[in-house]
Specification:
Layout (H helix, E strand, L loop, with lengths): L13 H13 L1 H14 L11 H14 L4 H9 L11 H9 L5 H14 L23 H12 L12 H12 L6
Helix pairs in contact: 2-8, 3-4, 3-7, 4-8, 5-6, 6-7
Length: 183
C-alpha cells in the first residue's frame, strides 16, 4: 500500500491524488465485502414480518432473477432494504445511495421510490395515501418500479418460498460493486 504525506487537502498534489485514486480502485473489493456483510446482518431484523429482512431481500432478488432482470436490477433487488441495517424509516434513501455509483440512474430511482410504490399494498393501514406512487407516473422508470414493487417486493414475505441463498448472488454483487459508474 502506498500512502501520501500531505496533512491538508489544500497541500496535496496531482501525484498524491493519482495514488489515492489507484488505492481506492484497488480497494473496490471491500465494497462488496461490506455490502454482503450488511445484507447478512439483516437476518437479525424481523420487525414482526413472517421472514427476516435478509430472507425478504433474497426472495425479492430471486423473483427478479427469475423474471429475467439484468445484474444491476437483481443486485438492487437484493439490496433494496439494506438500509434497514441502519434505519428503517430512511432505508430506501440509504439503499439508493449505496447503489447509486454502481447502477444506472433508473435503478437507483426505483430503489429510492420503492416505499411509495409498496404503499399501494399497505399505506391505508397507516392512514397514508395508497396512491403515493402516482406522483412518479411521468417518470420513465415508473413501469419498472411498479414491476419491482408489485411482482417482486411485496410478495416476498413467504417462509415457504424457495429462495436462493446469499452465496448464489455473491458473484453478481462483486461484479456490480466492483465497477463504479460514477462517484
Amino acid at each position: 500500500m502506498v500512502t501520501t504525506s500531505f496533512t491538508r487537502m489544500d497541500a496535496s498534489t496531482a501525484e498524491d491524488w493519482a495514488v489515492i485514486g489507484a488505492e481506492t480502485m484497488g480497494g473496490q473489493p471491500r465494497v462488496a465485502d461490506r455490502v454482503l456483510a450488511m445484507l447478512g446482518s439483516l437476518d437479525e431484523v424481523v420487525d414482526g414480518f413472517a421472514v427476516d429482512q435478509l430472507t425478504h431481500c433474497l426472495q425479492t432478488a430471486t423473483r427478479a432473477e427469475q423474471a429475467g432482470a439484468d445484474d444491476e436490477l437483481v443486485v438492487a433487488s437484493l439490496c433494496h432494504d439494506i438500509g434497514k441495517a441502519v434505519s428503517v424509516p430512511n432505508h430506501p434513501r440509504i439503499a439508493a445511495e449505496i447503489l447509486r455509483p454502481y447502477v444506472r440512474p433508473e435503478v437507483t430511482a426505483v430503489i429510492l421510490a420503492h416505499q411509495d410504490f409498496q404503499g399501494r399494498h399497505y399505506y391505508r393501514h397507516f392512514h397514508l395515501d395508497p396512491d403515493a406512487r402516482d406522483q412518479y407516473r411521468a417518470e420513465p422508470w415508473y413501469d419498472l418500479a411498479e414491476q419491482f414493487a408489485d411482482e417482486w417486493d411485496q410478495v416476498s414475505f413467504d417462509p415457504h418460498y424457495e429462495t436462493a441463498p446469499l452465496g448464489h448472488f455473491e458473484a453478481r454483487v462483486r461484479a456490480v460493486f466492483g465497477r463504479p459508474h460514477s462517484l
